Amino acid sequence: MKGFVFQGAGQASWQDVPDPGIKEPTDAIVQVGVVTICGTDLHILKGDVPEVSPGTVLGHEAVGEIVEVGSDVRGVRPGDRVLMSCITSCGRCRFCRERRYGQCRGGGGWILGRLIDGTQAEYVRVPHADLSVHPLPATVRSEDAVLFADIFPTSYEVGVRNGQVRPGDTVAVVGAGPIGLAAIATARLLSPERIIAVDLAPARLEAAHRLGADAVADAREAPGQLVADLTDGLGADVVMEAVGVPESFELCTRMVRPGGHVANIGVHGKPATLHLEELWSKDVTITTGLVDTYSTPTLLRMAAAGRLPTGHLVTHTFPVEQMEEAYDVFAKAAETGALKVALGGERYDVAVPTD
After folding, report:
1. Which of 101, 172, 207, 313 has its CA 20 to 30 A from that of 188?
2. What is the pTM assigned to this prediction?
3. 347 vs 335: CA distance, rounded Å
4. Quick check: 257 and 238 in contact, CB under 8 A?
């Protein structure tokens, strides 16, 4: 089969790789139907995730069809259309019992495309399949469903839930890429008074408006002043960092009100300064986190009910054989306007209207 293989910092290619097989009785083999690329994959290619070894197939977000299951798998069977979660869960360790699946110590956590071969291939082995794949409602298109492998649960859990968004809050989201846009969409479920999106790219700010942001600000034009003007100088109740660079994190800490929450979602490859000399007296709560995906079943039900906008997020589609071109388009989002890219899909489409 073919897969997109990491070969070292700055190097990867679509090439022949061995077919996966069942290794443990809890495994499933999935034929990939629709797969996407994550900003974290770009971090891996830059060399920011040193635990990824050369020779690893990348990817942790996909929808596909079960083709084989191990003897202990009970929840899915060959022929089922499933979402493959970015997080794998053993279901037995201390952290899994606390629903902290991202911290799994039983052979799970974020392993696909990081510690074992991932989803950017024709077939993938998914360990602990009963807890790590989700059967899909027939009414949810695969191109929409793939967004619930990572960006929607990540934004909702690490941003909205950790940030404790409440009705009537002012919420600022710094970074209007896919994660930030999903944070805007899921924050709306909690009825904040207003959502303010901050980014450098006009196309992403337009997308933020479409997905529910009430105000947008160019990151180069004093977004903190806009937040202050809209809150009588108090600052935002919740600020979400969805970029992963020091400047955006420090901007978030300047925009939050006393007693507010800064929820860091972005993946950071460099140190950021924590200005405790300014924050120590403000009663600010700062949270970080790797997604646990405990919310995935709920979010999928919301998508099936038409309560979450997904149709604006996939901006580019490719045949899976054009993985390298898709990476190039996604990496140059400022030039191409790419939000999420989807590869494959014809075999798994279902006839439902888009948002």
Report:
1. 101
2. 0.93
3. 30
4. no
